[in-house]
Backbone:
C-alpha cells in the first residue's frame, strides 16, 4: 500500500503544482497578449489608418481647392464647367468619408477633430455660394468669394488636418517602440508556457483517463435510467424484460408483466403545471419501488405517464395482489404543489402472465396493453387482466 500511495501523492502534487504554474503563467501570458493586441491595434489605427486617411483628406482638400480655383477662372464657354463641378462633388464626398474614419479611430484631442468638421461645414457653405455664382455666370462674384472668404476658410482647415497627421505618426512611433519591447517579454514567457504545458499534459493524462472512466459510467447510467424518476427507461426496461422472457422460454417458470398509466395526468399538468406533474411521477415511482415491490421486481418508465412492472417468479394471482397494493397505496397518497395544495392521483393497471405460446416479449405487451385499455375504459383506478 505504501508503494502505491507514494506515487499517487507525487502525481497529485505534481498535477496541482503544474496546474497552478500553468494557470499563473497562462494568465500572465493572456494579459501580455491582450496588451500586445491593443498595441498592435493602436499601431494600425494611427500610423496606417488615421495618418494615411488624414493625408488622403489633405490631398482631396487641395484637389478640391484647385478645382474651385479653375471654376472661378473660367472666362469663356469652351471650358468644361460641368466636368469640374462634378469633380468638386467627388472630392467633397471623399473628404467626408475620410473624416468619418478619423472621427471613429482618432485617439488624440477630439475637440480638434470636431473643430475640423465645423470648419469643413463652413467651407462647404462658401463653396456652394461660389458654385451658385459661377453657374449664374457671375464669375466676378465667384472669384471674389473664393479669394476672400474661401481662401481664409481653407487656410483654417489645413493646420487642423496637419495636426491629425502629426499626432497619429508620433503615436505610431511610440507604439512601435512599445510593441518591440513587449514582444521580447512575450517570447520569453511563451517558452516557459510551452514547457509547463508539456509537463501538464504528461501528468494530466492519468487524471484524464480516470475522468473518462467516470464519464463512461455516468453515460451508461444516463442511457439506462430515466432522468426524472431514476427508474429504468423504456430502452433498458425492454432489455431486462427480453432477458426475463428468454429465461422463461429456456427454463420455464412464470413471471408477470404489468402496465400502469396515471389517470387524468394531462389534467394535472394543465391545472397545476408540469412541475406538479413531475412530482406525481416521482411519487408514483417512490411508492411503488420503496414500499411494495420486491428487490427482484423492476419498475420502468416507458412513456410520459406510462410505466411497466416486471414481476419475475410469481403467479398471476400473487402478482395481482402486489399490484393491488400499489394501486391502493397510490390512491391513498398525495403530493404538495405550490401553496401546499394537495394533489390526489390514481393509476390504472393492465396485467398479463407469461404463456408458453408466446414467441416474443411483444406478445405480452400487447395483452397487457389491452388489459390497461380495459381498465381505463371501465372507469380507471382499477386492475384488469388479459391472459
Residues:
Amino acid at each position: 500500500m505504501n508503494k502505491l500511495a507514494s506515487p499517487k501523492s507525487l502525481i497529485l502534487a505534481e498535477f496541482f503544482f503544474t496546474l497552478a504554474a500553468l494557470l499563473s503563467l497562462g494568465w500572465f501570458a493572456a494579459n501580455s497578449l491582450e496588451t500586445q493586441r491593443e498595441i498592435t491595434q493602436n499601431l494600425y489605427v494611427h500610423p496606417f489608418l488615421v495618418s494615411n486617411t488624414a493625408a488622403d483628406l489633405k490631398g482631396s482638400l487641395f484637389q478640391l481647392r484647385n478645382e474651385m480655383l479653375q471654376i472661378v477662372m473660367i472666362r469663356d464657354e469652351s471650358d468644361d464647367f460641368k466636368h469640374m463641378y462634378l469633380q468638386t462633388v467627388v472630392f467633397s464626398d471623399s473628404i467626408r468619408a475620410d473624416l468619418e474614419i478619423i472621427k471613429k479611430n482618432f485617439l488624440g484631442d477630439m475637440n480638434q477633430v470636431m473643430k475640423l468638421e465645423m470648419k469643413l461645414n463652413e467651407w462647404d457653405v462658401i463653396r456652394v455660394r461660389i458654385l451658385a455664382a459661377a453657374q449664374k455666370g457671375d464669375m466676378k462674384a465667384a472669384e471674389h468669394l473664393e479669394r476672400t472668404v474661401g481662401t481664409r476658410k481653407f487656410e483654417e482647415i489645413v493646420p487642423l488636418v496637419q495636426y491629425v497627421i502629426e499626432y497619429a505618426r508620433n503615436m505610431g512611433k511610440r507604439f512601435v517602440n512599445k510593441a518591440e519591447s513587449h514582444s521580447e517579454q512575450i517570447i520569453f514567457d511563451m517558452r516557459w508556457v510551452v514547457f509547463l504545458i508539456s509537463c501538464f499534459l504528461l501528468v494530466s493524462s492519468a487524471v484524464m483517463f480516470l475522468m473518462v472512466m467516470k464519464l463512461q459510467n455516468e453515460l451508461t447510467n444516463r442511457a439506462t435510467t430515466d432522468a426524472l424518476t431514476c427508474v429504468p427507461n423504456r430502452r433498458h426496461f425492454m432489455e431486462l424484460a427480453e432477458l426475463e422472457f428468454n429465461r422463461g422460454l429456456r427454463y420455464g417458470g412464470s413471471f408477470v408483466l404489468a402496465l400502469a398509466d396515471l389517470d387524468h395526468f394531462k389534467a394535472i399538468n394543465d391545472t397545476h403545471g408540469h412541475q406538479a406533474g413531475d412530482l406525481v411521477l416521482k411519487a408514483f415511482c417512490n411508492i411503488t419501488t420503496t414500499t411494495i415491490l420486491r428487490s427482484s421486481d423492476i419498475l420502468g418508465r416507458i412513456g410520459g405517464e406510462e410505466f411497466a412492472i416486471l414481476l419475475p417468479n410469481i403467479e398471476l394471482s400473487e402478482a395481482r395482489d402486489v399490484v393491488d397494493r400499489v394501486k391502493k397505496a397510490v390512491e391513498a397518497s398525495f403530493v404538495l404543489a405550490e401553496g401546499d395544495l394537495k394533489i390526489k392521483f390514481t393509476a390504472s393497471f393492465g396485467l398479463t402472465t407469461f404463456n408458453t405460446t408466446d414467441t416474443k416479449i411483444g406478445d405480452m405487451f400487447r395483452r397487457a396493453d389491452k388489459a390497461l385499455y380495459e381498465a381505463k375504459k371501465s372507469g380507471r383506478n382499477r386492475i384488469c387482466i388479459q391472459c
Observations:
- The chain has nine helices and seven strands.
- Residues 139-224 form the longest helix (86 residues).
- Confidence is low (pLDDT under 50) at residues 1-7.
